[in-house]
């Protein structure tokens, strides 16, 4: 049986026996009024939220490879802006993690793997000649604390993020869930009045 077939078969069971009931929330808004930007690492699927006592319905979660905010007007930033302005998020958490696959990633190896999977050298050359520096674009980060601090600064200085929104920077250990504070967002908000 193919993976998708087995997942869809399970879904029939899931719906029939109302397994979804334990995941229901009051509405689409985060109960704790927070949005988290973190890495797509499989170890963080539940750990990122559970380590901070956040449950189903408490938080909006936005993910990408490495929790790297690469562009001030890209899809990650748009999601954070929508969460703040439309989905009642009053705080933002940026959570990087130790042992991230995007730290010190070998971009030459990625390009080789692309070729092995059928992406032609000609296609890669066309992208390079079109102005896309693939090595730079694929590069992750060198230091997780610096990467989180960079993301926090980009969000805090974004013209569409209100000045009264605390942006916190955290780094989690995927082995034991220990979270270290990198940036306390409350420190950047004069007279913060949140709970």
From TrEMBL:
GO MF annotations, alphabetized: carbonate dehydratase activity; zinc ion binding
Highest taxon of source: Bacteria
Key word 4Fe-4S present: no
Catalysed reactions listed for this entry: hydrogencarbonate + H(+) = CO2 + H2O
Cofactor(s) required for function per UniProt: Zn(2+)
Alphabetical list of SUPFAM superfamilies matching this protein: beta-carbonic anhydrase, cab
EC number, UniProt record: 4.2.1.1
Cofactor: binding details: Binds 1 zinc ion per subunit.
Keywords, sorted A to Z: Metal-binding, Zinc
Alphabetical list of InterPro entries matching this protein: Carbonic_anhydrase, Carbonic_anhydrase_sf
Binding site for Zn(2+): 39, 41, 97, 100
Enzyme class: lyase
PANTHER family: CARBON DISULFIDE HYDROLASE, CARBONIC ANHYDRASE
Family statement drawn from the similarity comment of this UniProt entry: Belongs to the beta-class carbonic anhydrase family.
The protein's name in its UniProt record: carbonic anhydrase
Species in which this protein is naturally found: Gemella sanguinis
